[in-house]
Design goal:
About 35% of the residues lie in helices and about 20% in strands. By secondary structure, it is an alpha/beta fold. The longest helix is centred in the N-terminal third of the chain and has 17 residues.
């Protein structure tokens, strides 16, 4: 069974990790578990040693800071101050030594700011590795027994610091800087790019511990929804959460909408704090200059409920973090991938079906605005089923924006007005195949500019056109056939029998 990209799912963790890491050693106060982001050992009867790890792909020095801060946050959530870190860095053989120096310079700076020592670790140069990676192990000790008693339980208030999608939207805003500046005022883009500058939650954790926090959890991969589920799962409690009270910035909402992302499932930032007097803790945090909101409470019931006005629904197990779409785009850029382009699509169910086809074939989907619907409409998700969250989809302001972003693309224009059949061309493994909107197709002025690559699906004269989803499937699978169904499974298997 192949594993999904990103954080290991809960079921996969239970099958492949949890059952092999159980221990009855009385020295282990907190060991592996869902929502247990730090391990704690009793080293003398009253002293505690805690360790927490965080990994990251290194594209910029900010990634080093982020990894160190999240590892430290995980210790703070157990009531233990981080004192030192160990770093394991792996870089490719084509990387310059100056980049390694830059990484360590940033690591030393953040550790100095937080009075943490760099104990050392391991550095390795690996042949063929394209993206440097870091593994941070944060260590801390405590003479107190706070870590023993920090447990989430029923009938506690839930307080949140930070805001939903904080880190993910900052990464997205930096990568898509030029596109966003065409659509939003510079102030919005500038603000979003700074969302992840303050990641360490030490002050919030110390204030919460001093004023009755019963348990805390760091919001990171999986976003707020993922953190809520893991937090509840760690103590096997239920939740009642008010969606409208979860803090979120307007910049996050607007940028997420452009890309069709759910900001509540996007790499977050901040803490979830369970306590007896939520309103009092919120006031104490605000007095310290730390924004905080009471968003719900824990229950003795098994259900995790999300309320949105009169709408009441049960929370699902954490889905893949939306940030994986950004990272998947980067991964796809390294290999040849077929591309489907929809010019101003109007019917959400068609786009949902086409999205599912793209996921099944490994193709990317490109949507040229304006769209006749919102990407969060239920009809899209229904047509795409649970495949939509795995779709690599990019939106463009208009056709000019698409051409600017893909200047060297070989584009085939699928139209009933085209002069030759789709079977008469040889589709390149990284080509783009464009389809027009349901009511009018691709504008003729665009077709004229791409006459040599304009193609059609043969059909009877009295039939105006095929369904858009069917048209995409027909042409896409011909392109896949021509390229040998690269990386696709070509043989099927019976469930209860064997083929002869």
């Amino acid at each position: 069974m192949k594993m999904r990209i990103g954080k290991l799912s809960e079921n996969a963790w239970k099958r492949s990790i949890g059952k092999y890491t159980k221990t009855a050693d009385p020295k282990v106060i907190a060991g592996p578990g869902i929502g247990q982001d730090a391990a704690i050992l009793d080293i003398s009867g009253s002293s505690r040693l805690a360790a927490a790890e965080e990994t990251a792909v290194l594209r910029t020095p900010q990634d080093v800071r982020t990894a160190i801060c999240h590892a430290a946050n995980n210790l703070w959530c157990r009531g233990i101050a981080p004192e030192a870190v160990m770093l394991a860095v792996t870089v490719g053989d084509e990387e310059e030594e100056s980049f390694l120096q830059e990484i360590m310079r940033e690591a030393a700076a953040v550790c100095k700011e937080q009075k943490m020592a760099v104990l050392g670790g391991h550095t390795q140069v690996q042949k063929g590795m394209k993206k440097p990676q870091i593994c941070v192990t944060a260590l801390g000790t405590s003479a107190e027994t706070t870590a023993d008693s920090l447990r989430i339980r029923p009938d506690l208030d839930l307080v949140m610091t930070g805001h939903a999608g904080r880190e993910g939207i900052a990464l997205l805003a930096r990568q898509e800087d030029q596109r966003l500046r065409k659509q939003f005022p510079a102030a919005i883009v500038d603000a979003a790019q700074e969302f992840d500058r303050e990641i360490l939650e030490a002050d919030a954790a110390k204030t919460a511990l001093a004023h009755g926090a019963a348990a805390m959890h760091d919001i990171s991969r999986g976003g707020v929804f993922g953190a809520l589920w893991e937090f509840a799962q760690s103590g096997e409690v239920g939740l009642e959460v008010d969606l409208k009270k979860i803090p979120i910035r307007q910049e996050t909402i607007e940028i997420s909408e452009i890309f069709g992302w759910n900001p509540y499932q996007l790499l977050g930032g901040g803490l979830l704090i369970a306590c007896e007097q939520g309103s009092q803790l919120v006031e104490k945090l605000r007095q310290e200059g730390i924004p905080a909101v009471q968003i719900g409470h824990t229950t003795a019931e098994a259900q995790r409920v999300l309320n949105n006005g009169e709408d009441r629904r049960f929370m699902d197990k954490p889905a893949a973090d939306e940030i994986e779409r950004l990272e998947e785009t980067v991964r796809h850029d390294e290999k040849a991938v077929l591309n489907i382009v929809l010019f101003e699509p109007e019917i959400p169910a068609n786009t949902g079906n086409i999205g599912r086809t793209c996921v099944a074939t490994g193709a990317r989907l490109h949507l040229i605005e304006p769209l006749g619907f919102r990407l969060n409409e239920k009809s899209i998700k229904r047509a795409g089923m649970d495949y939509w969250e795995h779709l690599d989809v990019t939106r463009y302001l208009d056709f000019a924006d698409f051409m600017e972003k893909n200047p060297n693309a070989k584009i085939y224009m699928a139209s009933t007005k085209a002069p030759r059949s789709y079977t008469e061309v040889q589709f390149e493994p990284d080509c783009f195949i464009m389809f027009g909107k349901e009511s009018a197709g691709i504008p003729e002025e665009i077709l004229l500019e791409h006459q040599d690559t304009a193609i059609r699906i043969p059909m009877l004269e009295d039939i105006r056109s095929l369904n858009l989803g069917n048209s995409v499937a027909i042409v896409l699978y011909e392109a896949l056939r021509q390229n040998g169904f690269s990386q696709m499974q070509e043989k099927g298997h019976l469930t209860r029998y064997e083929w002869k």
